[in-house]
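Hi V.,

You were right to ask for the full record rather than a summary. Here it is.
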Amino acid sequence: MKKPSKDLAPSDDSTVDLDAEFHSSNIKEVLDKLDVELIGLKPVKTRIRETAALLLVDRVRKKFDMTAGAPSLHMCFTGNPGTGKTTVALRMSEILHRLGYVREGHLVSVTRDDLVGQYIGHTAPKTKEVLKKAMGGLLFIDEAYYLYKPENERDYGAESIEILLQTMENNREDLVVILAGYKDRMDKFFHSNPGMRSRIAHHIDFPDYSDDELLAIAKLMLAAQNYRLSPEGEKAFGEYIRLRMKLEHFANARSIRNALDRARLRQANRLFEGARKNLSRTDLMTIEAEDIRASRVFKEGAVDLDGDEGANKIPSTDLT
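Predicted structure:
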């Protein structure tokens, strides 16, 4: 009886339908989500699409036995707060899972406090427990530069970094680590930790949003909660954004979300205190200019529209 021949690798003239591979991977759905969820950020979206294309082609190459080793997928996201870093990390975890580069595709988000202990023998168990939870998915470390505090001789952050480095190298096929934080501080962190710098293959910078983009984000946030701005309310909120951007502790979309929460409170109080109690659907969902202009950003004249005079008048605890 003739023995069955071994499977042979595709020949050089074999072809593969890359478009069909793209659609069967279902990553288009994730990329489309990014476009819907995030206003602007064109350079970020471009880098994510490029990374997805690289991984898709790498997967297709394996069908031709063209292996190049597991690509390094550890990343660094830099930018100011509220620029979408966590959202992009979540979508990146979905892309990697759908393309088969991580087993489960979950995202574990942590800070220094989740990794570093306060006494001898406490850091290693904490860091290893977090890594155990993240295996098969992505570990997102926000404000990662706080792991390294050379000015404190009794700090245990270096121990956590050492464990992270070892795990990132030995488990490249089962864990992706994303470090995030302000760009200047992350640059200093990498300068002080060359081992970590050498393991990060992808650096993506998240730009601040423009005032027009922030207004579009606000409208999306409101629509998701069945609210909307009246024409005058939209004009007032546009003014609010321009004023708020000049103040300290501005956190892009995060500050916009906080401002809208306060506007909703004012709207509810206006409706409750008003003389008319028979309210329509339109009444209940519309944020008016007065709900916006009641903000202390307007009341205290914190910022001159032509400059930054008086920008520090408003306490950071109440900037909405």
